[in-house]
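Handout, section 3.2

Students often ask what a structure token actually looks like in practice. Rather than define it abstractly, here is a full record for Solute carrier family 25 member 3. The first block is the sequence as you would receive it.
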Amino acid sequence: EYSCEYGSLKFYALCGVGGVLSCGLTHTGVVPLDLVKCRMQVDPQKYKSIFNGFSVTVKEDGVRGLAKGWAPTFIGYSMQGLCKFGFYEVFKILYGNMLGEENAYLWRTSLYLAASASAEFFADIALAPMEAAKVRIQTQPGYANTLRQAVPKMFGEEGIWAFYKGVAPLWMR
């Protein structure tokens, strides 16, 4: 007995929920480390090492400062996980049907790579706006402290492009 039929809407929804849980929760759990890493990249003179970065952040912002950017991280990576896991299955079935059963089996590694790349293309588009907001919150002191502050400010200053400047680098990685 299966919990749902392979390729059904329920199947895709469960894959998407799995992506939300695995990507959204794990990335949110490491926000303090990501915050310090980003700050080290932007200001290596001030944030000399991981331990120094944690110390400086706590000294300046308190322990709560280590959580800066948690909301865009959770939302962005949840959306990325939803698209990555859900669309991977969509594209795997779509491309497999296009190739036919025998060719899909013979070319399964290429099929899986193509499905994965296709899913990641859309997953990064879903992630980019929240990643842009997160980076501004974490690396530009005084710019914004919350997602609700960052989004309208970014849009007002640069328009919609502010949220998608990082999509090409996401695709490159």
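Discussion prompt for tutorial groups: The chain has one domain: 9-172. How would you have guessed this from the sequence alone?
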